[in-house]
Amino acid sequence: MSKRRIGVFFALVATLLLVLTACVNSDDGENGVYNDPGADPGFSVGDNPRVVALGWSDGAIALELGTKPVAIYDWLGFGEATKGVGEWDAAKFGDDTPELLSAQSQGDFNYQQIEELEPDLILNVRAADDSKVTDRLAKIAPVVSAPSGSGDFAVNWKTQTELIGKALGKGDAATELIAATDATSERLKNENPAFAGKTFVNAVKYGTAYGAYLAGDARFDVFAGLGFVQNPPVTQLQSSGFFAQVPVERVNDLNSQVAIFSTIGLPFADLENDARLNSLSVVRDDRAVRLAEDDPSVQALSAGTPVSLNFALEKVTPQLTAAAARVQ
């Protein structure tokens, strides 16, 4: 083959490779989905990636790891005042302000809006398990999602942090962030040996019924880390992922030795004046910590990030200490 033909051949090969690469990266292709914290993400987003965070608290965790998302889905309704995150994280944005996204439901994202943000990475970890949403997002940018088999919004806070950390190339920082919260928990546990083995519920009143958070959700797990155990009757209730429904006829299942009660979508007065809850000995004996839905501690527990859980533990533990001291 002549030198000229060899040159033409390699030029054709190079052109073909460019075409194939363009096809892989086109809107019709998939950018990949990362959902295994034990594996390598298989991509690199660089030092200053444009991150769009759609999952519950995904953006806050990225921020705690030192990456400022350009857009956040504000699940907890923190609003512009704290830039879509809790008061414990807002200052980390500095002078930057993310775009706050909204939708009617988890599967109702404005995909054109997300595309226009030109993300290098999309976080959708603590979210509904919807392959159609994941597949659509993967046409825009690489996606980080919950491990296969996770319930809707039920990914463990540590797994969520590990996934986001590794996807951002900050796996070591994620490990350190988790360890710092674990250290706070261990310290408070050691300071409060009376917590060990005490039955406990973290429950809410909503609508005309009640509910309790279960193991696997940070709103229970952080208190288990202090030594409390789930009130046994709660484990027999019908559950949906991280939450057990408590019908009115079974409200006594919430009568643990120590409790936290709050509301969802109801004023605090509805909790204070609830005759069924007030009939429980845990309330009558002042062993229940009652918190308004907008109490920063409740919001921090709901956010379920390393920093927010650390914040909540420091705020709530003194009240639990007083409650546990009243157990006969």
Descriptive account of the structure:
InterPro entries: ABC_transptr_periplasmic_BD, Bact_iron-sidero_bind. Belongs to the bacterial solute-binding protein 8 family. It is found in: Cell envelope. This protein is of the alpha/beta class. Helix content is 37%, strand content 15%. The protein has helices at residues 3-24, 58-64, 111-116, 131-138, 157-167, 171-191, 218-224, 268-272, 275-278, 281-284, 296-303, 306-324; strands at 33-34, 51-53, 71-73, 99-101, 121-124, 143-145, 199-206, 209-213, 229-230, 239-240, 243-246, 258-263, 288-290. The strands form 2 sheets. Strands 7, 8, 9, 10, 11, 12 and 13 form a 7-stranded mixed beta sheet that branches. Helix 5 (157-167) packs antiparallel against helix 6 (171-191). The longest helix has 22 residues, at 3-24. The radius of gyration is 23 Å and the shape is globular. The model is unreliable at 1-28 (pLDDT under 50).
Radius of gyration: 23 Å
**Averaging pLDDT over every residue, what do you get?**
89
Helix and strand element order: HEEHEEHEHEHHEEHEEEEHHHEHH
Spatial gap, N to C terminus = 95 Å
Number of helices: 12
**Helix content estimate:** 25-40%
Major beta-sheet overview: 7 strands, mixed
Portion of residues in beta strands equals 5-15%
Shape: globular
Query: Which structural category do the helix and sheet elements fall into?
Result: alpha/beta
Q: Uncertain spans, ≥5 residues at pLDDT below 50?
A: 1-28
Q: How many strand segments? A: 13
